[in-house]
Structure to design on (796 residues):
């Protein structure tokens, strides 16, 4: 990952926390307005083209289920699932929002996330992919036809027939090379201009030299022409290039598009009127209004209103925190229950959020750039090939007393024989096979070298809230409640978007509980919900508000009339596959750490449940980075798995990093791999596949080297015929491809 | 040997037709979703009448 773009992304970090869109998670109802507004702004008459990611789709039934459900949705004109990319594109009226569709899909059991069609560079990337495919097609066609002619020559065509066949080959090969070889020529030219000797320089040189020498030989009625070699070289290398491109395009587009539609805006109170302004225009002293469900755009002190805020993504605390007049809040917290008015203390560069972004930028720049196996191979390969070829040319000039034609022939043969076909295919073929395998398991590789880095990992550091746990509370003792109490609690809970209330409501819906009708339901921000049931006042909320005793665990309380309050306790739910992932990692001999910003009790309980011996609670973001850096300094290769903003710096500092799709944009940007599904178990698989993939890459290099050791001396002493070149090239390419497919 | 005067052009033309067909399939975006296409065969949704 390069430093600059990531840092650039992070300087925009406040944008991720200000827009209404984020509120999707906290307040679905508030969402209709902003999405309609966005659509109106884009002014698309043809209707919105929405794109959703479908991480769990995998079969024919999924395709027809999803397409049918979406087509039935009012306002949807057409829907088409792309199973390869696990996406669905929807053509719909402007009134249809992505959230409606996500809800529809959720209803039939498919998880869906919105992708940003604006960020869809897909049209551009598709064009490049199709372009490469065309070139592969052309060179494949030419290769087959020339090979037919070449075989006749090799089997003994003589004189005029041979010349004719060579001329026909030239007529096919020259336009083909000129068209299909362009990607290599262009990239070789750029690297030469930059004063480097990339892999594409010897490739281009070999293609051009082989073609021009063959034309010269054909004109002089020579025996050997290398048209087939030139075209075959182009074909195999294009296949490698395409595989490489395809892997990266799939990963890049999906990762980019996961970025939600977030606009950095804040609601400013100016002379009593609400004005929407960009976040960077906020100054200390400004009064801003934060609706329930929205993220706080700048650090500030509450002047009016009471509410609770969710800090889990900032600090890892799983419990909402009370906020009333005088409380100091940080940018990035989510306002949960009541509207708040804040006086800005620090905005933009000075806010806590930005200090965090700076921390990430520092971690990024401290990390040395990883040199991939392919780069190391290319670095050794290019100079070696040039030296060999030029030495062969010089030696044969001297031996033959200045026979230019013969010496050039030899040096071209050397360039062709040392063909980087296998080298150009070795890495892309393995990476394609491995990332395809991981993609099917729900892991998206964002960075090309991520697999190699992942293979070296020996220590895994997990974040708690949102990573090992779902980050959402789950009521634990509902059995202790009578059906009546549960019903009342659920009815009250439906009046609030507080996470605890929503958890109760969801549990009631899941049990198909009959929810009684209440009167006068109203939310008292910061305290709870109140209503009237059968003439009695019923309340659900904080302990002190109901006269209940506050316990040590996360809990809410229910009081019906004058009866004693009932306590409903909550626990954070373990993410599915978390236990499997941790035990599989331990079985693989990796050290596992748990580091969280949450309180000690919650962290130690989870560590015990999962059997993690090394844990740390109450860790600040800086301490998380420090832990990763300390481990690295001890020589460990750390894999960081985290989702919050407080993990972002540690994600950037670690040797490799994974974040779930539910993670913050900044965290996903900083990590190498995104976990698309809910399940955490693929993390252990990823490490296993990565180790295997690195093994295959090394084997492929070994195969290429063995071929060269055999073939290069033959070329050097001048015994290489076009037949030998063709054989060496195709067998080595096919062996490496087959070897890559052995990946399990 | 005179027969190659026919055979070579014929082989080139046939190959060229294949190449044109390939161009068309790329342009028609038939390689966008290979996995989905292989699964769609199993769906009987549009067996009776084509998608309108």
């Amino acid at each position: 990952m390069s430093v600059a773009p990531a840092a650039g992304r992070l300087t925009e970090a406040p944008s991720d926390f200000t827009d209404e869109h984020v509120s999707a998670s906290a307040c679905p109802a508030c969402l209709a307005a902003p999405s309609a507004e966005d659509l109106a702004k884009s002014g698309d008459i043809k209707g919105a083209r929405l794109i959703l990611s479908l991480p769990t789709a995998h079969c024919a039934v999924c395709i027809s289920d999803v397409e049918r459900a979406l087509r039935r949705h009012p306002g949807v004109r057409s829907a088409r699932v792309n199973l390869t990319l696990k996406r669905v594109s929807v053509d719909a009226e402007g009134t249809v929002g992505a959230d409606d569709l996500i809800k529809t899909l959720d209803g039939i059991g498919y998880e869906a996330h919105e992708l940003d069609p604006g960020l869809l560079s897909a049209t551009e990337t598709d064009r490049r992919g199709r372009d490469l495919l065309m070139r592969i097609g052309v060179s494949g066609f030419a290769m087959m036809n020339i090979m037919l002619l070449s075989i006749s020559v090799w089997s003994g065509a003589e004189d005029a027939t041979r010349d004719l066949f060579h001329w026909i080959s030239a007529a096919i090969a020259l336009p083909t090379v000129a068209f299909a070889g362009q990607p290599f020529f262009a990239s070789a030219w750029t690297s030469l201009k930059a004063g480097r000797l990339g892999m594409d320089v010897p490739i281009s040189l070999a293609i051009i030299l082989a073609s021009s020498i063959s034309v010269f030989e054909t004109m002089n009625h020579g025996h050997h022409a290398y048209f087939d070699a030139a075209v075959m070289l182009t074909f195999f290398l294009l296949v490698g290039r395409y595989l490489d491109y395809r892997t990266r395009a799939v990963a890049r587009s999906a990762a980019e598009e996961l970025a939600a539609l977030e606009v950095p805006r804040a609601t400013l109170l100016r002379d009593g009127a609400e004005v929407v302004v960009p976040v960077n225009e906020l100054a200390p002293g400004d009064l801003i209004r934060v609706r329930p469900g929205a993220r706080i755009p700048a650090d500030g002190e509450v002047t009016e209103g009471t509410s609770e805020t969710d800090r889990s993504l900032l600090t890892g605390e799983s419990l909402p925190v009370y906020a009333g007049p005088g409380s100091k809040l940080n940018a990035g917290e989510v306002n949960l229950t009541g509207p708040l008015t804040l006086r800005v203390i620090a905005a933009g560069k000075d806010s806590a959020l930005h200090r965090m972004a700076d921390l990430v930028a520092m971690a990024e720049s401290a990390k040395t750039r990883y040199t991939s196996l392919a780069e190391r191979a290319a670095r050794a390969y290019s100079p070696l090939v040039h030296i060999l070829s030029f030495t062969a040319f010089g030696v044969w000039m001297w031996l033959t007393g200045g026979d230019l034609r013969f010496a050039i022939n030899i040096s071209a043969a050397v360039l062709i024989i040392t063909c980087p076909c296998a080298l150009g295919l070795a890495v892309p073929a393995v990476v394609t096979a491995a990332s395809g395998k991981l993609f099917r398991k729900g892991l998206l590789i964002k960075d090309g070298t991520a697999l190699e880095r992942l293979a070296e990992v020996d220590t895994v550091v997990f974040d708690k809230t949102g990573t090992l746990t779902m980050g959402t509370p789950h009521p634990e003792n509902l059995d202790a409640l009578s059906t009546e109490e549960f019903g009342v609690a659920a009815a009250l809970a439906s009046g609030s978007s507080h996470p605890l209330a929503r958890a109760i409501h969801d549990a009631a819906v899941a049990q198909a509980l009959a929810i009684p009708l209440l009167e006068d339901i109203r939310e008292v921000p910061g305290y709870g919900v109140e209503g009237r049931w059968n003439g009695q006042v019923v309340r659900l909320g904080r302990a002190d508000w109901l006269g209940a005793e506050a316990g040590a665990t996360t809990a809410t309380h229910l009081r019906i009339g004058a009866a004693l309050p009932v306590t409903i306790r909550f626990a954070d739910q373990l993410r599915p596959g978390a236990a499997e992932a941790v035990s599989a990692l331990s079985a693989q001999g990796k050290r596992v750490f748990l580091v969280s910003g949450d309180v000690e009790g919650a962290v130690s309980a989870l560590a015990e449940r999962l059997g993690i011996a090394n844990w740390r609670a109450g860790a600040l973001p800086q301490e998380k980075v420090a832990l990763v850096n300390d481990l690295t300094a001890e020589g460990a290769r750390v894999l960081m798995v985290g989702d919050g903003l407080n993990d972002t710096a540690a994600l950037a500092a670690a040797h490799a990093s994974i974040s779930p799709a539910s993670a913050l944009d900044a965290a996903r940007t900083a990590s190498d791999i995104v976990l698309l599904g809910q399940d955490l178990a693929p993390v252990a698989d990823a490490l296993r596949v990565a180790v295997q993939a690195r093994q295959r890459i090394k084997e492929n290099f070994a195969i290429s080297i063995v071929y060269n050791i055999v073939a290069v001396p033959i070329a050097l002493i001048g015994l290489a015929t076009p037949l030998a070149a063709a054989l060496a090239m195709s067998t080595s390419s096919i062996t490496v491809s087959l070897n890559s497919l052995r990946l399990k | 040997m005179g027969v190659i005067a026919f055979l070579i052009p014929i082989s080139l033309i046939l190959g060229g037709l294949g190449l044109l067909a390939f161009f068309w399939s790329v342009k028609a975006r038939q390689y966008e979703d290979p996995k989905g296409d292989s699964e769609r065969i199993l769906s009987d949704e549009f067996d009776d009448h084509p998608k309108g």
Q: What stands out?
A: Residues 4-27 of chain B form the longest helix (24 residues). The helical segments of chain B are 4-27, 34-40. The CA atoms of residues 45 and 51 of chain B lie 9 Å apart. Residues 16-42 of chain B form one domain.
